[in-house]
Specification:
Blueprint: H1 18-24, E1 38-43, H2 51-61, E2 64-69, H3 73-82, E3 91-96, H4 100-105, E4 109-110, E5 134-146, H5 147-152, E6 173-176, H6 182-195, H7 200-209, E7 213-215, H8 218-225, H9 230-234, E8 241-245, H10 248-254, E9 265-282, H11 288-298, H12 301-306, H13 308-311, E10 314-315, H14 324-329, H15 341-359
Parallel strand pairs: 1-2, 1-3, 6-7, 6-8
Antiparallel strand pairs: 3-9, 4-9, 5-8, 5-9, 5-10
Helix pairs in contact: 6-7, 7-15
């Protein structure tokens, strides 16, 4: 969901996306759309789409798609802001609700309301008065657990944020740095939404006393420290609880060979925070018409239904169907924590500063 560069893609089990991205076009850094028939999408490193779906857009629209991946979500947003007067592309995809205000306040996008955006669920929409960004996908940041670990010990896995401070789960949780990682920030915001401005710090004191481990990013947390993932097993990870996504379990099934009948990991539904990811037409884009066509494509039903098994996120269109693997192994949280982007904008930097002093020092 960012959902972002640490998001679950084929990288969960080391599967290369090079073929897919090559089909989407060149990703030469520092080049915007050099001609009117090329449209450049700037994104974080987790962009992925089926070759057939991109090819269909290129055939129907007449535009060639060039993909420029630019690091994790935070890095990509910051770089896009720094280069907004001479942007690297035409459309930016991958700013989520935790960083949305930073992009809007810095004038990153120009207004455009894509065709089909009226089919986007109302709860995911933002900036409705100006239409500078369009929701593209959503995902839930949640604690995942290693089913085998808890079954072997006849221990019930945690279900809620409160559970994570229970001594039964001491030294079991690994999370990401809230100052450098999108899921880490999402988890922090989830605790702030749950416990309020006056209570979240006390919660983190309890979590720290209960042995929470903090690492820089999702890749390290999930594929090295977490005992339940395919990568974590290979790395001999010893933490059976990790901050990841609700879509992690279906990824563990889809990329396993042979596929298991059940996911080896589960989700503690009472720990989830919902992220929404947006795209927008960049200010000073060289190919505005191509950018508009690309945004129409991103909210179109074909792309929306292609996303789940490519980027492991949920569509935002009300009429888009999710694949059976998602419905079975990774349903969305029924009652996730949420927070208004305006409140995130007001408090995010101070919360992260206080969290860093409290947890990392």
């Amino acid at each position: 969901m960012s959902i972002n560069a640490q998001r679950l893609t084929a990288a969960v089990v080391g599967l290369s996306l090079a073929g897919t991205l090559a089909a989407c076009g060149s990703s030469d850094a520092g080049q915007g759309s050099g001609d009117s028939k090329t449209v450049t999408l700037v994104s974080h490193d987790s962009w992925a789409a089926s070759k057939e779906v991109v090819a269909a857009f290129e055939k129907e629209s007449g535009y060639k798609v060039r993909i420029l991946e630019d690091g994790d979500a935070g890095q990509a947003v910051n770089k896009a802001i720094l280069t907004k007067d001479n942007p690297q592309g035409d459309v930016f995809f991958g700013v989520d609700n935790t960083l949305l205000s930073r992009a809007l306040d810095n004038g990153l996008f120009q207004p455009y309301e894509p065709k089909g955006s009226d089919r986007v669920k109302a709860e995911y929409r933002a900036d409705q008065d100006k239409h500078r960004v369009t929701p593209v996908d959503t995902g839930d940041v949640c604690v995942n657990y290693d089913k085998k670990y808890f079954a072997d010990r006849k221990l019930q896995p945690p279900r809620t944020l409160d559970d994570l401070t229970d001594p039964r789960y001491k030294d079991l949780l690994v999370t990401e740095n809230a100052s450098s990682s999108s899921p880490g920030l999402g988890f922090l915001l989830g605790t702030a939404a749950k416990y309020g401005d006056q209570g979240w710090e006390g919660y983190w004191k309890k979590l720290k006393a209960n042995g929470v481990k903090v690492v820089d990013g999702w890749e390290q947390a999930y594929n090295e420290e977490f005992s339940g993932s395919a990568g974590g097993k290979k790395a001999k990870g010893d933490r059976p609880l990790v901050v990841s996504y609700a879509s992690s379990p279906p990824a563990e099934v889809v990329f396993a060979d042979p596929r298991p009948d059940t996911a080896p990991t589960g989700v503690a539904e009472g720990t989830c925070f919902r992220q929404v990811e947006y795209a927008g037409l960049l200010s000073n884009a060289r190919n505005t018409e191509g950018g508009k066509a690309l945004l129409d494509f991103l909210v179109g039903k074909r792309f929306q239904e292609d996303m789940p098994l490519n980027m492991f996120v949920y569509p935002v269109r009300e009429d888009a169907q999710v694949p059976p693997e998602f419905a079975r192994f990774g349903p969305q949280a029924k009652d996730p924590q949420t927070m208004d982007p305006a409140k995130i904008a007001e408090h995010r930097d101070q919360w992260v500063k206080s969290w860093t002093s409290l947890v990392l020092k």
